[in-house]
# Entry
Amino acid sequence: AQTVTQSQPEMSVQEAETVTLSCTYDTSESDYYLFWYKQPPSRQMILVIRQEAYKQQNATENRFSVNFQKAAKSFSLKISDSQLGDAAMYFCALFAGNMLTFGGGTRLMVKP
Amino acid sequence: NAGVTQTPKFRVLKTGQSMTLLCAQDMNHEYMYWYRQDPGMGLRLIHYSVGEGTTAKGEVPDGYNVSRLKKQNFLLGLESAAPSQTSVYFCASSYSGLAFGEQYFGPGTRLTVT
# Structure
């Protein structure tokens, strides 16, 4: 069985500051993919960033970047220059063995 | 393009009743998925389909059935609803498989079973 754990139920950040959301995972598969999804109050799920496990280089998408530590099975999301529109639930997800598993989510609040 | 649409948006059922949730996508995607999201939890995959006429079980398939008779539609059925099936249901579709993560999600259906 594979698991995804997000240990921070809620996080808060000041607008324009940087925040890091944590995620750890466990899988016995050697080939897998990791994702961060954003779910705003509209409940729509939006893909934020994707990382292939075989790639050592950390993925980046504009203000979003990850710190992928394969040996530690850690996959954190860094949001730089936080904006009010970043306020949402953030889910870490793991695809391995033909299964997609989500973590429990972190609620991010952005203070103006 | 409408993207992924779900019908209905809300539904209340009594225990033992049956219903079907409809998911439709107009992006010509091969892959379609049904998830459920319970409070404080991430999404869990119920069933998925890798093409017209095919279905497969996900993480939590018990109590649900699905059908993919047309490429653009993916139906989720509850034959005998139970309170444990109270949840928000999301449909998603993608051009490629789950590994690529480019899933397009519908707006969700909130189901309450009393």
User: Anything to note?
Assistant: Chain B touches chain A at residues 40-45, 58-59, 88, 90, 92, 98-103, 105, 107-108 (CB under 8 Å).
